[in-house]
Amino acid sequence: MSGDVMDIAIGALKGLGASTVFVLALFIGFCVVVGFTKLKRTAGGTALVVKSLDERISHQPMAYFPPTAPRGPADQLRAPELLEHAARK
Q1: Residue bearing the bigger pLDDT, 5 or 47
Q2: What's the sign of the alpha-carbon dihedral 84, 85, 88, 89?
Q3: Which residues contact 55 (CB under 8 A, 6 or more apart)?
Q4: Are 58 and 42 in contact (CB under 8 A)?
Q5: Quick check: 45 and 61 in contact, CB under 8 A?
Q6: Helix, strand, or coil here: 41?
Q7: Rounded CA separation 22/8 (Å)
Q8: Using CA of residue 50, residue 43, residue 53, residue 63, what is the dihedral sign?
Q9: If pLDDT is split at 50, 70 and 90, which confidence band does 23 have?
Q10: Rounded Cα–Cα distance for residues 31 and 66 (Å)
Q11: Residues 57, 22: Cα–Cα separation, whole Å
């Protein structure tokens, strides 16, 4: 009798393992296929990169600011909203 219980337990574990491996392979395969469809050549370069919506619509490569470009004041303590609030007090 214990042999039958052992066979049922081993069969259940094999079935659970096989279904887990199948679902995992299906999920990984889907992610890989969808990931490769996002790789396109940009208009300006030869490397495969993920295109942004702007590049897809304008068919122009993204123009990024150089690191030395001025970004404006970044003093959060002197924001117009805070200065207005302080002036009302």
Answers
A1: 5
A2: negative
A3: 42, 43, 61, 62
A4: no
A5: yes
A6: strand
A7: 21
A8: positive
A9: very high
A10: 34
A11: 38
Whether 7 contacts 14, CB under 8 Å? no
Task: Tell me what pLDDT residue 8 has.
Answer: 93
Tokens (6 digits) for 1: 């009798």
The residue extents of the domains of the chain are 1-61
Residues in the chain, total: 89
pLDDT tens readout for residues 64-85: 888 777 776 666 777 788 888 8
The amino acid sitting at 85 is H
For 37, the token pair is 């469809």
Alpha-carbon distance 9 to 12, whole Å?
Answer: 5
- Rounded average pLDDT over 14-32: 95
The pTM score is 0.44
